[in-house]
Design a protein that fits this description.
Elements (H helix, E strand, L loop, with lengths): L1 E4 L5 E5 L8 H8 L4 E3 L2 H8 L19 E6 H5 L2 E4 L8 E4 H12 L3 E4 L2
Parallel strand pairs: 2-4, 4-7
Antiparallel strand pairs: 1-2, 1-3, 5-6
Length: about 120
């Protein structure tokens, strides 16, 4: 999910499992942010070069100014594999989580914040 604070000055990419309930109040408290909501489509394209429905961790390669903070739900973070879109929602990839954490993210310069949902 691609989220932002009320002022639309902070952006977040949340990676979570499909069956997890999501409560913005709980997440906002964990990350110390004002109320969260879905970010505008224009921001999704501007920052990650993704269209609605295709927000993906791989889009972080397009966030060269590090304006998006990556949040990963603990179960996704600890899983052996994760699934994501390749910046378009017509396909999905299954990748080793360790490769994302230890190879991809260091190259993009993004850190991960683990959250509990």
């Amino acid at each position: 999910m691609f989220l932002c604070n009320r002022q639309k000055t902070q952006f977040y990419l949340l990676c979570m499992g499909p069956d997890k309930p999501f409560h913005t109040k709980d997440l906002s408290h964990q990350i110390g942010s004002a109320r969260l909501s879905f970010a505008p489509e224009e921001s999704l394209w501007e920052l990650l070069r993704c269209t609605p429905g295709s927000a993906t961790i791989l889009g972080l390669m397009n966030d060269r100014e590090h304006q998006v903070r990556l949040l990963m739900e603990r179960e996704v973070y600890e899983a052996e594999y994760l699934s994501c879109h390749p910046c378009i929602c017509t396909s999905s990839l299954k990748l080793k989580t360790a490769d994302i954490l230890h190879k991809f993210l260091p190259r993009t310069g993004h850190a991960v914040t683990v959250v509990d949902l």
